[in-house]
């Protein structure tokens, strides 16, 4: 299954990529490890944000597709 990445998810991924690139240039291994862990956390946030945004879009779509019952 392909997951569509939302705009919010893309922003998290962009931050994760920046953190990871910065970690690769660090000479202090402890700081580099912390930056990599933070980058991993942002990747998880990107996935979660995209799932939530997709669910919200689906709910909006389903709500607009429901027939209006008139009494």
Provide a concise account of the structure shown:
With 71 residues, the protein is mostly helical. It has one domain.
Give the key terms.
rod-shaped; 71 residues; 79% helix; mainly alpha
Percent range of helical residues: over 70%
Strand proportion: under 5%
Whole-angstrom Rg: 19 Å
Low-pLDDT segments: none
Mean pLDDT: 88
Number of helices, counting only DSSP H or I runs of 4 residues or more: 2
Task: Provide the domain count.
Answer: 1
SSE succession = HH
Measured between the Cα atoms of the first and last residue, the distance is: 41 Å
- Would you tell me the structural class of the helices and strands? mainly alpha
- Main sheet summary: none
**What does the overall shape look like?**
rod-shaped
Number of strands: 0
Please give a structural write-up.
The chain is an all-alpha fold and 71 residues long. It has one domain. The protein contains two helices and no strands.
Strand and helix layout:
Layout: H1 7-25, H2 29-65
């Amino acid at each position: 299954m392909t997951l569509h990445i939302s705009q919010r998810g893309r922003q998290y991924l962009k931050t994760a990529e920046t953190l990871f690139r910065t970690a690769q240039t660090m000479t202090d291994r402890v700081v580099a490890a912390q930056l990599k862990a933070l980058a991993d956390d942002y990747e998880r946030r990107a996935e979660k944000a995209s799932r939530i945004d997709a669910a919200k879009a689906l709910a909006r779509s389903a709500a607009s597709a429901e027939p209006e019952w008139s009494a």
